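Retro notes, item 3 of 5
We never archived the inputs for the thiamine diphosphate complex last cycle. Fixing that now. Sequence and ligand:
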Amino acid sequence: MTENILTDPTSLDTSIRPTWCPGCGNFSIWLGLKQALTKLNLPKEDIILFYDIGCSGNMSDFNKVYAMHCLHGRAIPPAVGAKLANHNLKTIVVIGDGGGYGEGLTHYLNEMRGNHDISIFVHNNHRYSLTTGQMSPTTAKGTKTKSTPSGSIEQELNPMALALSNHATFVARELATAVPQLIQTMVDAINHPGFAVVDILQPCMVFNPEMDAVWYRNNTVRLTDENYQIATKQAAWEQATRTEKLPLGVFWKDDQKLPYHQEDAVLKKGPLVDHSLNVDIAPILEQFK
Ligand SMILES: Cc1ncc(C[n+]2csc(CCOP(=O)(O)OP(=O)(O)O)c2C)c(N)n1
Ligand code: SF4
Ligand SMILES: [Mg+2]
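Structure as it came back at the time:
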């Protein structure tokens, strides 16, 4: 039987209340995600979430949805697996900058090459926050953190440029606190037929207090306010590599490229969960006697 979501996002709530710090950007991302799922108005059984480990991934306790709380950095591969098994599912990954761009970077890079039809929402607070504020791959060079008391030496990683150069077909950046725009971008990412990444700038008032609401107001710009139109990869690249401001919105979208499950000969016939396997494995087993 179809269990329909929702006209009311609070019906997604479990009885567990968030343990995030007051003022944490995870609250507005959580709100945005619940609103986006409500807006999609899909049967609950058609949605599955994969949470990574982190303050961000703790959202797993607060949402009443089909889900898996994965090992740190490993939320993307099981999401791909679920999508391959049942490509009717809307498959969403909730992950931090540490998990997505550090421990799990190989998964981020390699799964986008296949254009697997999943959406990755990265809570980018520029810190490993759950483990109390070490530098992450997106921490700006020179930043003092618990693990870099004299200032970090490494240049920061650019997730938007990586996604563009590595064939992701939906590339966007949002700000956690700009909830209406965040909701729309989440809906567009989930509806996009291919690998969608939304890098969500997320304030962490405890371990990254410098990047607060005022900092984000002074250091971001909305692409639509500059009349940016999605046109060429080159134009998207120029936005992704800007340094004076961080652009917000959708940099790039290509919905002509087929997702993985529509390219593969077996998967094209329908979800694997609908296939019955009429294969005689006796001859194969013979080889190992
Ligand atoms: C394989 C592995 N390495 C390290 C850890 C310890 N660990 C747990 S959460 C975390 C940091 C998470 O940072 P991020 O992914 O940015 O999420 P945030 O807490 O900032 O939301 C680390 C290093 C772990 N649980 N597993
Ligand atoms: S440590 Fe930072 S990211 Fe974690 S709950 Fe607190 S404010 Fe949020
Ligand atoms: Mg983080």
